[in-house]
Amino acid sequence: MTTTTLTPGPLAVDAANAARLCGVSPAHWYTLLAGGRCPPGIRLGRRVVWPVDDLRAWLAAGAPAADRWAAMKK
Questions:
Q1: What HEC string does 26-69 produce?
Q2: Disulfide-capable partner of 24 in 28, 33, 60, 68 (CB 3.0 to 4.6 Å)?
Q3: For residue 39, with 0-12 CB atoms within 10 Å meaning exposed, 13-18 middle and 19 or more buried, which class applies?
Q4: CA quadruple 19, 65, 34, 52: dihedral positive or negative?
Q5: Mind listing the pLDDT tens digit for each residue in 25-72?
Q6: Interatomic CA distance for residues 61 and 37, integer angstroms
Q7: Are 49 and 12 in contact (CB under 8 A)?
Q8: What is the pTM of this model?
Q9: Residue 9 confidence (pLDDT)
Q10: Backbone angles phi, psi at 27, to 5 degrees
Q11: How far lies 6's CA from each of 3, 9, 37, 56, 68, in Å?
């Protein structure tokens, strides 16, 4: 009998991969971030990452501005 181990994807991604998941370029991702149009990341040491589940939920909600997204999550 063979057992298969499923390797889950990452729980959080850096800016380049967040951009890729959302279908935009990294440069556009930083523009969105600077303009408050995407969720803020989470700082882990020197890195900033975005939880993949949060990005998926944000997109499913229509990609609202960061302040509206924060209010929707509460």
A1: HHHHHHHHHCCCCCCCEEECCEEEEEHHHHHHHHHCCCCCHHHH
A2: 28
A3: buried
A4: negative
A5: 999 999 999 999 999 999 999 999 999 999 999 999 999 999 999 999
A6: 13
A7: yes
A8: 0.84
A9: 85
A10: -65, -40
A11: 10, 9, 34, 21, 36
